[in-house]
Specification:
single chain; alpha+beta; Bacterial polysaccharide co-polymerase-like; 3 domains; 5 strands; elongated
Length: about 400
């Protein structure tokens, strides 16, 4: 029994050896075909490794505006669609500018300005954009010192823009043009915190002015109809103080609303303003309570005469609107000063100049050459087996019979 098992094992081994030898026989039989395909491919790819692509490398370094809050950058990037609504993500101005530089809208402006469709000889916008991005590199300026800072968790504020082109002047022009277009692009967008603040205060100021004019007209009409021109001096002092406090509360709430548009409730500045509003409201409540009870230290004689109650209400509303208008005017003027003093200023540290030295890169590296040669070898082997299969099936009588039956010309 053991002898039979050994015989079967030997037969199986011989059969496997036979199959393996059959493969080798086919390859040996078609060796000329394999060499005709593999050797030319190997020779051509090897020669291609000596051909180098000559280009010029121009670069410029810019410094993004400093001092922008991360919350504002986050909010703006969400508005542009660069950043999802995910809490805990902090973007700096540098991150914002890098995202803009890589955006489709911005790159299309560069492509159009320098007529890069004609340069690349491609009309398809997507392909032109892809080739342009391959020739442009946007990254932080990582010198040795800045690498150390990056490892310590401090990001370099500088951005380096590198452009590759076969013409030295064109490479420098594109690099500088990217910076110029970036300035224009940023200027056309309300990116800065001060711009949004100024626009918001401008709208609030218009509303406050309309309300103040209405209060003045109401007071004038009331005085003309009643003949009451003024109230007691002490009453005016109390009313003015209450109106001023109410106006300050409204102004702080407006400021708080602006801050919450680009920050969170955990921001220390937001918490500080909230505490200020709370303190103002407590003080206002005390003043109003003392006025109702006739206990205000400025009015020791008791409550204000009922004859002037209507006048007091209109006078208070007028003084409130006046105080609010004055506060908003100051805030608006301050926002305009901040906007002019703190624009989205992009400073050019190193302007791109036409490079004097050429850079070279191999169009076809050794790895690509080796991979292409191996592919050609396996392709020739596959072709050899296919030709051998065709040759053997052509001599097979059963295959001829099968072909005859498969033909529709065959009569049943």
């Amino acid at each position: 029994m053991d002898t039979n098992i050994n015989n079967k094992t030997d037969d199986g081994q011989k059969e496997d050896d036979t199959h393996f030898l059959d493969y080798l026989i086919v390859l040996a039989k078609r060796k000329k075909l394999i060499l005709k395909i593999t050797l030319p491919v190997a020779l051509i790819t090897f020669l291609l490794t000596f051909f180098k692509y000559t280009f010029y490398h121009a670069e410029t370094t810019i410094l993004p505006p400093q001092g922008e809050s991360r919350g504002m950058a986050n909010q703006f990037m969400r508005d542009l669609g660069f950043l999802p609504e995910v809490s805990g993500t902090n973007y700096t101005r540098q991150d914002l500018l890098v995202e803009i530089l890589k955006s489709r809208t911005f790159n299309d402006r560069i492509i159009e300005r320098f007529k890069l469709r004609n340069y690349y000889g491609i009309k398809d916008s997507e392909k032109v954009r892809k080739m342009f991005l391959e020739d442009v590199s946007i990254e932080p300026d990582l010198t040795e010192e800045k690498r150390t800072n990056l490892l310590r968790g401090r990001q370099s504020p500088l951005i380096k823009i590198k452009v590759v082109n076969d013409n030295a002047n064109r490479a420098a022009d594109i690099a500088n043009g990217i910076v110029e277009e970036l300035k224009i692009f940023i200027k056309n967008l309300a990116v800065s915190e001060t711009s949004k603040k100024r626009l918001f205060f401008e709208e609030q100021l218009k509303q406050a002015q309309e309300t103040l004019m209405k209060s003045e007209d109401d007071m004038k009409t009331f005085q003309q109809s009643t003949g009451l021109l003024t109230a007691e001096t002490q009453t005016e002092i109390v009313i003015k103080k209450i109106a001023d406090l109410q106006a300050q509360i409204i102004a702080k709430e407006i400021e708080l609303q602006i801050m919450k548009s680009y920050s969170t409730v955990s921001n220390p500045d937001v918490q500080r303003v909230e505490e200020t509003v709370k303190a103002f409201k407590n003080e206002l409540a005390k003043l109003e309570a003392n006025e109702r009870n006739g206990k205000n230290m400025l009015i020791p004689t008791g409550t204000i005469p009922s004859l002037g109650l209507d006048y007091k209400r209109k006078f208070r509303q007028l003084k409130f609107n006046e105080a609010l208008y004055e506060i908003l005017v100051k805030q608006y003027e301050l926002a305009k000063v901040e906007e002019s003093r703190d624009p989205i200023l992009i400073q050019v540290i190193d302007k791109a100049i036409p490079p004097e030295k050429k850079s070279t890169i191999r169009k076809f590296g050794m790895k690509k050459a080796l991979a292409t040669t191996i592919f050609a070898f396996f392709f020739s082997c596959f072709l050899s087996f296919y030709l051998e299969f065709r040759e053997r099936t052509g001599k097979n009588e059963r295959m001829e019979i099968l072909k005859g039956y498969l033909s529709f010309k065959n009569k049943m």
